[in-house]
Automatic annotation (TrEMBL), chains A, B:
This is fumarylacetoacetase. Its cofactor is Ca(2+); Mg(2+). Pathway: Amino-acid degradation; L-phenylalanine degradation; acetoacetate and fumarate from L-phenylalanine: step 6/6. SUPFAM superfamilies: FAH (SSF56529), Fumarylacetoacetate hydrolase, FAH, N-terminal domain (SSF63433). Its EC number is 3.7.1.2. Residues 132-418 form the Fumarylacetoacetase-like C-terminal domain.
């Protein structure tokens, strides 16, 4: 698809032009509703194309697809068919949804295939095998290093030589809409001798994006930066919930653990790498020459506008952060090349999150920790409210979209309400 | 089963008395051979009981078992049936294998049910969802802290207040017998300004045990130390392969990543918690009073003798470490209570490794790092060889067993050969 050079495509589905889910996007997800069990779909405007219904009615005649492939309850097996197949499915749906194409528009099964999006429940799109969280925004790492260590040496010596990352908890990755409970744990006041215990006092979000791998490797093999994108199926928005006080007490020397593992929330529609092609952008210039396995021949950054909204239980939505995925110092090809340089095998459905995406100015900061500078400068919200960290009843929403030359491709949202700690 | 108070049980299977796999043990695993596809079995002496064949021939008449439950290729779905069921299956097999019981011994299908163990390939017993590695041996943490930080303050302030742990990589956990490739990566000589790149120069093993969970929890829920064992199905030996130079350069501030994720090896037979009951033992006295959620009402330690052998490519096996699981400062109930205190959900098939199990004397040290004190005191091997770390062609074998009052329950072994880095 050479979207940029051709006239703007339109769909016969109404109201898609300014939607996140234009005919240029066509992300994959898993949904269910009162009538239908879990199944794969493609989003278009305020509708979902039920891929299983399309398949049943013979709309994929030239694509080799196993029976019930869209009824698996996750996309893993579909993605494993490989890009030649998944691309063909998306392109076929694009044809069928095009303004001039009558095949589905005028077909009697149209009503069965096109589902109203607001009536469904979105589920996890993939079963996540392993989940890695990188730390690839220089601004974020600098902010954190300044606050917790030394403003004059905010970045640690390894930071510009490799994309620092750590293993996260896969079981607690949940889709948008599912509330989370405030985590309990240990934290220690520096003034006190012993740790305290209770619900976290410093609950935070982290604005991230994550890519999902679409191909396995064998142990011992590495992926080059040149080949990396062949292994990437698509992207979601990622909210890496964090409990700053728990994290601060536990993380030396083995890294974040319970300060993170209680929940991570994602947007439920996987936007394919193909759909993001128009938004490809250069990454920041790397100030230190990297080792050969981290060198890249082309741009692997993407110009994706990101926003975070905070809504108190009784109050309006406040836009509290505007950032962009293009600020990432380390790109996706470098992240995947680094992840596998030691021979670590990857699997279909793994998730690789970017780390908090902060930018150069204060409005770009992707966490409460940075926005309020450790709570020292509370955010002023509508209605005279203020916030140092996230409170019970608050809802955090993240949105993201690319827009260029009349083409819009968005991620929808990841929206999560925070409930009080269980058993308190 | 009240093994301790009764006369010693014997099996009609020959040569089981001094085996790791006595009639008191009966661990579960997944095997295949030239004739049979992947299936569940129970080990006894040098045989395996093919559970699927037993099931097919009606040997579990009073136990509610789904069809093909033993042909799933992993034990996850079987374990998920719950302890009342998995215990009944093990007890029924124990009856059938007892000296005095003719039901299987004299049955015409005996030849089909009893498989020769040396002819099979052992596979991963479970699909591992998440894998946590704890750091629960005080001796190990003290040794590492002394070497890398400060001998006078070897343990960090949090260490005695919580079982420190981190998330590990699940995809690269492999069964005994599968060789590993030496990992490549970045490491930095403190004398140099820039990092170097190549195959690790400091490949190490870590002697650990891991427990496997047998029951899910919901997000937001925590498991008490009192209930923790209800969630534990069984144990394996665990070799947490480590590349010390890669780890040293990467691990600040987010913890170990590529220095660990290239491989972890396990013994393929899951020894059930029930089988370890005779070896229950007190843990070391905790010097600092722990928070209420970490307090225990009973012993959760186990007296399991552990051994590590190192065999060069052309040379004999050398016993290089003798340790014991009972040295663990933090026990399994505390580990699971801590893992879930923040509401992190656990799943059937998760693996929770102990961290390196070192003891008070030098022969108890569970890694080359400690045994050679960072390479400064090379190990002397048979035939005039010496080792600072693990070399290409070396085979590392770990064994473990409990023995008490004539009852022996062993883990078999986890044996792994190290191959040169791929592509070099």
């Amino acid at each position: 698809m050479k979207e940029q050079k051709e006239a703007i495509m339109k769909s016969w589905v109404s109201g898609t032009q300014n939607s996140d889910f234009t005919i240029y996007n066509l992300p994959f997800g898993i949904f269910k509703n009162k009538r239908l069990g879990p199944r794969a779909g493609i989003a278009i405007g305020d509708k979902i194309v039920d891929l299983s219904a399309l398949h049943d009615h013979g709309f994929f005649p030239d694509i080799k697809l196993p029976e019930r492939i869209f009824l698996e309850g996750s996309l893993n097996r579909f993605i494993r068919l490989g890009k030649p197949t998944t691309k063909k499915v998306r392109e076929r749906v694009q044809q069928l949804l095009s303004e001039e194409n009558p095949d589905l528009k005028d077909h009697q099964v149209r009503g069965k295939v096109m589902i109203t999006r607001k009536d469904v429940e979105m589920l996890m799109p993939v079963e996540v095998g392993d989940y890695t969280d990188f730390y690839s925004s220089k601004e974020h790492a600098t902010n954190v290093g300044s606050m917790f260590r030394d403003p004059d040496n905010a970045l640690l010596p390894n930071w510009k030589h490799l994309p620092v990352g750590y293993h996260g908890r896969a079981s607690s990755i949940i889709p948008s809409g599912q509330p989370i409970y405030r985590p309990k744990g240990q934290f220690k006041d520096p003034e006190k001798k012993e740790p305290d215990f209770g619900p976290t006092r410093k609950l935070d979000f982290e604005l991230e994006m994550a890519f999902i791998t679409g191909k396995d490797t064998k142990m011992g093999d590495s992926i080059s930066t040149e080949d990396a994108e062949d292994y990437i199926f698509g992207f979601v928005l990622f909210n890496d919930w964090s409990a700053r006080d728990i994290q601060a007490w536990e993380y030396v020397p083995l890294g974040p653990f319970l300060g993170k593992s209680f929940a991570s929330s994602i947007s439920p529609w996987i936007v394919t790498l193909e759909a993001l092609e128009p938004f490809r952008a250069p990454s920041p210039i790397q100030e230190v020459e990297v080792l050969p396995y981290l060198k890249c021949q082309k741009d692997h950054g993407f110009d994706i506008n990101l926003e975070v909204f905070l809504q108190p239980e009784k109050g309006n939505e406040n836009l509290i952060c505007k950032s962009n995925y293009k600020y990432m110092y380390w790109n996706i090809a470098q992240q995947l090349a680094h992840q596998t340089i030691n021979g670590c095998n990857i699997k279909v459905g793994d998730m690789y999150a970017s780390g908090t995406i902060s930018g150069p100015t204060k409005e770009n900061y992707g966490s409460m920790l940075e926005l309020t500078w450790k709570g020292s400068q509370p955010l002023q919200l509508e209605g005279g409210k203020e916030r140092k960290f996230i409170e019970d009843g608050d809802t955090v929403k993240m949105k993201g979209y690319g827009e260029k030359g009349g083409i819009r491709v968005g991620f929808g949202e990841v929206t999560t309400k925070v409930l009080p700690a269980k058993g308190n």
